[in-house]
Amino acid sequence: MEEEKKLKEEGVQEEMNVMPRIGDKAPDFEAITTKGKIKMSEFAQDKWTVMFSHPADFTPVCTTEMSGFAKRKSEFEALNTELLGLSIDSIHAHLGWVQNVRKNTGVYFDFPIIADLDMNVSKKYGMLQPNESETSAVRAVFFIDPEKTIRLIMYYPLNVGRNMDEILRSLEALQTSDEHGVAMPLDWKRGDKVIVTPPKTLDELNDRLADDSCEKVDWYLAKKEL
Length: 226
Ligand code: BEZ
What we know:
Bound molecules: benzoic acid
Oligomer: single chain
Order of helices and strands: HEEEHHEHEHEEHEHEE
CATH superfamily of the largest domain: Glutaredoxin
Number of domains: 2
Shape: elongated
Strand content: 15-25%
CATH topology of the largest domain: Glutaredoxin
């Protein structure tokens, strides 16, 4: 009996510890949201998705974060990106909170927020981190490209809010890297020089040494304007 209980507990733990990784396909799911039912594989066709969890409705840090997403929604739209929120709260709690924040501050959470009461989505995306909280999702952000591949993941604890500038910067860096086949240096932001992919063969290395079109620190570290 004890053994059976232990195995069951380990199974639950394992299920909660599924952590999607960068490069994985975004796990599919169906969910109820403040904008109706969605299916991940059909959501935001031909667009990027930024999916983020918050620990709980009607809590202070979460209210500042969700307001941040709402206020800067047009900047995500300009980057061809749909927002998708989530917490382990009921749809009624979500609706009440959205209305409450709108009444108090005029900020409207005009994007779908998943009501993940059965924790189906949170478990699939590793948002349940039991040593941080057994009942709430941590503050996760998943950057998912139009092919539904996970491209970047952020996890924050319950007591620290995220940085909206960094979320937007990371999204733009990913898209710029894809578009131009370059890499982005420390603190890169739009307008900064980008890193030219390092040579992989001796011929490429010699070409790079002879190439005056980019700013070279050495053959393996070269930057250029876009
Ligand atoms: C908050 O958003 O303020 C919060 C939520 C859950 C735990 C701690 C803080």
